[in-house]
Amino acid sequence: MPAKYKYKGIHGSKYVNGELEAINRDEAAFLIKEQGIIITDLTLTAGQERVDELIDKNKKKKSRSTLDKKKVPFNQLIIFTKQLETMVRCGLPIIKTLDMLIDQTKDPVLREITMAIMKKVEGGSQLSDAFTDYPLVFNNIYVNLLRAGEASGRIDLFLKKLVISMQKTEKIRSSIRSALIYPSVLFVVAVAVIALMMVYVVPVFQDMFKGAPGGLPPITQMVVDISEFIRDPMRGGLCAVLLIISAVTFSYAMKKNFKLRRFFHYKFLKVNLFGELIRKSSLAKIAMIQGHLSSAGVPVMEALDIAQTSISNIAIQDALDNVKKGVYSGEPMSELFKAQPDIFDATFSGMVAVGERTGNMEEMFESIASYYEDQMDDTIQHLTALLEPVMIVFMGVTIGFILVAMYTPMFQMGQAL
Question: Domain 3-64, what fold?
Fold first, then answer.
């Protein structure tokens, strides 16, 4: 049975709302946008969505081709777009360009997609329309900038903007990954070393001090008790199984329960450094998207809608939704951003206000994106500077505590002798 969804949106100059049935949220959004409606709210009201099926864009069949369901590594997509931009800038015909890209593309999925795109272009389709058929690879930003390039006759210029946008997105991703990878490795190593000591080293000392006069010191006995608990299948084993089940259950609930996911997104945004990192990277991304789409002539409401879909944090999505509603009512964007200081700080709203006064929103959004990229880099440096010593101290203190606990009986024996 299909799931039922309730939606609100803007069609032309009017607010609209209604209900529809769809197999999942993606199909519901597609069906609504097919009617020319800009979605402001989409809520599941009944039934259960099927996340394993995608939308059939052409509506001629229920299942989509295998190509439509496959993704391409982002770095491969950047290389593909760079090559496309270079060839177009050099004046090569688009069919010849696509033919050359087929030979140069290493990723098999992207190569097949390029072949399919070339066939569609040869059949008379516009380039942007051919790219639209693969939304998992070429998102709304990609297609809109291509469309703007075709309309203006400067497709090479907009492809260059697209390459810059993708490189900045990749920079944000890699910066966040690099900030977390070293502390994560330290934590995993620390846990592994502690587990090995508890399972293999502590029992050796336990046998060595068995029957010691006066018993073991309290600190040593505590470590021995923990080791016995971990090694006991009915206690430590059961505890480990329960922890794994709890983690899997929580992960599944976060994926399926929108209210729970929304609650944690709001709370996580308030966590020091981590929340700031998400907020600043999102603001940089929003400004970058708005700047590029503004230069492409995309209407403000549609640009905000595209920016909203590119952000994963629900709290920031809700804030952008409020901005869209205000823009529709005729309020200045800067005032709408200013009204939500938890997400859009004074610098963001102030710079947007300057752009509105000067009439140069494209340049101002580019400046905002650069500013928050620098801010994000500073936050990553602070986060790394904090996490690395914390993990090292945690590993040193924990392992040191175990070693001291194990050698304490030896010190006592030496004093007795």
Answer: Ubiquitin-like (UB roll) (3.10.20)
What is the C-alpha to C-alpha distance for residues 222 and 212, in angstroms, rounded to an integer? 16
Question: Which segments of the chain have a pLDDT < 70?
Answer: 1, 10-15, 38, 40, 48-69, 211-215, 412-417
pLDDT per residue as tens digits for the range 64-77: 456 666 778 888 89
Question: What topology is assigned to 169-417 in CATH?
Answer: Receptor-associated Protein (1.20.81)
β-strand partners of 21: 4
Residue the block writes with tokens 């272009």: 121
Residues in the chain: 417
In this structure, whether the domain defined by 70-168 belongs to CATH 3.65.10.10 is answered with no
Tokens coding 307: 């920016």
What's the gap between Cα 82 and its chain centre? 23
pTM: 0.68
Q: How many CA atoms, within 13 angstroms, populate the side-chain half-sphere of residue 288?
A: 27
Burial code of 15-44, b = ≥16 C-beta within 10 A, e = fewer? Answer: eeeeebebbbbebbbbbbeeeebbbbebeb
